[in-house]
From TrEMBL:
Species lineage: Eukaryota, Metazoa, Chordata, Craniata, Vertebrata
Organism this protein belongs to: Buteo japonicus
Claim: Cell membrane is one of the keywords in the record: no
PANTHER family named among the record's database cross-references: KRUEPPEL-LIKE TRANSCRIPTION FACTOR, KRUPPEL-LIKE FACTOR 15
UniProt key word Cell division: no
Protein name, entry field: C2H2-type domain-containing protein
Length: 134
DNA sequence: ATTCGTTAGCGCCCCCTGCTGGG
DNA sequence: CCCAGCAGGGGGCGCTAACGAAT
C-alpha cells in the first residue's frame, strides 16, 4: 500500500520505508555515513555522495546538450540550460511582467517588489492589475 | 523481508558576469 | 566614468521517492 507507516519521532514526518525514515533521522542527527574518499565531505545518502563525486572528482557529466557544448551532472540542470536556448520562461511574477527561466531567479526578483524596494521599482501595471501601494 | 545503490526529481542558495541607469 | 541594482547562466548541495539488486 502507499501508507506511510514509518514516522519520525523527532518531527512526526512519515515515510513509506524504514530506509527513508532512517535517512531522514540522519538529517536530524547530522549523521553522514557516506564519506568521500577524495575530500572531507560526507553525506546522508549514497546518492548525494555519488553526485558530489561527479561534481568535484570524476567530473562525469552524463547529460549533453544537443544544441551546444554544454553538459551537466544533473538532468534538472540540463532542463534549465535548455531554456536558455528555447527562451521558455515558466516562472511568472504575479506583480509585474517579469518571467524567469529559473524558479530561484523569480524568488530573487521578488525582492525587488519588497517594501524597501517599492519606491525604486514600481512595476509596469496593466489595467487588470490590482495592486495597492500604501 | 530488509537494506543498499542508483536514478530521478524537486528545491535552495551561491557565484560570476553583463547590462543599464543615475550620480 | 564609476557604482549600484538587477537579471542571466550555471555550480553545488539538501532532501525525498521509486525501484531493482543484493543481503
Amino acid at each position: 500500500s502507499d501508507e506511510k507507516r514509518y514516522v519520525c519521532h523527532l518531527c512526526l514526518k512519515a515515510f513509506h520505508t524504514a530506509t527513508l525514515l532512517h535517512n531522514h533521522v540522519n538529517v536530524h542527527t547530522g549523521t553522514r555515513p557516506y564519506k568521500c574518499n577524495d575530500c572531507d565531505m560526507a553525506f546522508v545518502t549514497s546518492g548525494e555522495l555519488s553526485r558530489h563525486r561527479r561534481y568535484k572528482h570524476t567530473l562525469e557529466k552524463p547529460f549533453k546538450c544537443s544544441v551546444c557544448k554544454y553538459s551537466s551532472v544533473e538532468a534538472s540542470k540540463m532542463r534549465r540550460h535548455i531554456r536558455s536556448h528555447t527562451g521558455e520562461r515558466p516562472y511568472a511574477c504575479d506583480l509585474c511582467s517579469y518571467a524567469s527561466k529559473d524558479a530561484y531567479k523569480l524568488k530573487r526578483h521578488m525582492i525587488t517588489h519588497s517594501e524597501n524596494n517599492l519606491p525604486l521599482s514600481i512595476p509596469p501595471l496593466s489595467m487588470t492589475d490590482r495592486i495597492e501601494y500604501n
